[in-house]
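Appendix C: a fully annotated inverse folding record. The material below is reproduced so that readers can follow the format used throughout the book. The structure is listed first as tokens, followed by the designed sequence.
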């Protein structure tokens, strides 16, 4: 058997763990083994860029993923249609060929094409309480990471 990666759902940071932690959902299908690569195209849905969810105040709900489910077309994956185009640069649903992915400078599947409004529009920031929650989550995540690093620097206990 071989595995075909066909879809990546980019989720907002912080919905499962602390703010800043990226999460993606990868969709695979098993295929009979063959000489060619099973993955021909990878469909991306960018539900990360310009989307704000928090664990406490605005958790992710099923209705938030309705557009993705419609684009995914679970009844017939072969009839998907991109919402992104040169005429619609805000479309969240986009297909990349295996060749396009392999030609990238890095072998990272974490692609983005939407303009991040938070980098340009300072008048459209999240609510102060949401920002405060994100800052607290970032500090907590940083402290956990620092503790892991600090623990790894400690000399191991010598046997008695």
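Designed amino acids, in order:
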């Amino acid at each position: 058997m071989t595995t075909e990666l066909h879809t990546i759902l980019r989720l907002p940071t912080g919905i499962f763990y602390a703010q800043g932690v990226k999460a993606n959902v990868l969709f695979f299908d098993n295929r009979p083994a063959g000489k060619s690569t099973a993955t021909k195209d990878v469909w991306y849905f960018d539900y990360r860029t310009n989307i704000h969810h928090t664990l406490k105040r605005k958790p992710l709900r099923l209705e938030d993923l309705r557009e993705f489910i419609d684009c995914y077309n679970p009844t017939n994956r072969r009839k998907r249609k991109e919402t992104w185009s040169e005429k619609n640069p805000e479309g969240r649903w986009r297909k990349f060929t295996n060749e396009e992915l392999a030609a990238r400078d890095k072998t990272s599947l974490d692609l983005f094409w939407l303009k991040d409004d938070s980098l340009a529009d300072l008048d459209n920031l999240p609510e102060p309480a949401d920002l405060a929650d994100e800052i607290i989550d970032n500090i907590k995540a940083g402290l956990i990471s620092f503790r892991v690093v600090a623990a790894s620097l400690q000399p191991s206990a010598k046997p008695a």
